[in-house]
Amino acid sequence: MKAAVLYHPGAAENFVIEERPIPQPGEGQVLVKIKAFGLNRSELMTRKGLSPSVQFPRVLGIECVGEIEEDPSGEYKKGQQVAALMGEMGRAYDGGYEEYAVLPESIIYPFKSTLPWQQLGAFPEMFQTVYGSLHLSLKIKEGETLLIRGGTSSIGMLAAQLAKNMHVTVIATTRKEESRQLLTDNGATHVLIDNGHLEEQLRAIYPAGVDKVLELVGTVTLADSLRCANEGGSVCMTGMLSETWSMPNFVPMDVIPSTVNLTTYSSDQISLSTHTFQNFLTSVETGRVNLNVSRVFQLEDIVEAHKFMESNKAGGKIVVLTSHS
């Protein structure tokens, strides 16, 4: 099988496409024939050496979709469609950037779908993150206002659609004027051009602030996002598009306004039910939700795929297909 192996952190050119033996699953594991996988910003950070716990060489990839090739336990039949994500996938053990992967049963989500693999490859981590952020952390409700900071990211694009379907008013941000129409077409009622200081722009539209904020840019804009929330409002930090893990000299009582709630969401801490995943795929199949796939690459083109992710020009999910697709 082919695998994209990273022997040393650094530039995208550090990926090596090599032939490897197909691994064999042990107890509590399954062998997945990978059809497709989505790219994630956390993988970009790991590639750059910003994930201290990751040891090299490593096959990156925190998610994938494909079919069961072998399950020693007999729980899954060969050919069963499955998604896999997180659980230290692509970090503590080899992940999705390969044609076959041995993965723990605990991170496997069976599903049935007629969607093409290039669409299915976009959904696992993206949906898990969006659903968890909106429903488990922010607990959005019909009639509320939601600011999505980092609106052109794949997470931001899907969050806007799911929120709009719940009759939530969406305010989305972008750093580029040319992306305004993209966000409007995706369901945003208001689009703000983000220069790092949104509070004044936001309160010109909503003087009291908004009910909920989904922070996808990260720690560099978190303090400003907290000031955009109304009394009793909530801010969920989910993304780190800025690639910065921490806030220097963080003083909670100075940064967090009184009565405003600050929470986070990370999909490696909470798992969703297979029923929730299946319902989401049904909503895509029926046209209620559009999976924003920006570009599709082949596994052999992983270097170009990572460069495209790093360029911040995607405006949707980047999906990579294997030779099995």
UniProtKB/TrEMBL annotation:
Keywords: NADP, Oxidoreductase. Transmembrane segments: none annotated. InterPro entries: ADH-like_C, ADH-like_N, ER, GroES-like_sf, NAD(P)-bd_dom_sf. One of its GO terms (molecular function) is oxidoreductase activity, acting on NAD(P)H. The keyword Oxidoreductase applies. SMART domains: PKS_ER. It holds the Pfam family ADH_zinc_N. CDD domains: quinone_oxidoreductase_like_1 (cd08243). The keyword Secreted does not apply. Residues 10-320 form the Enoyl reductase (ER) domain. This is Zinc-binding dehydrogenase.
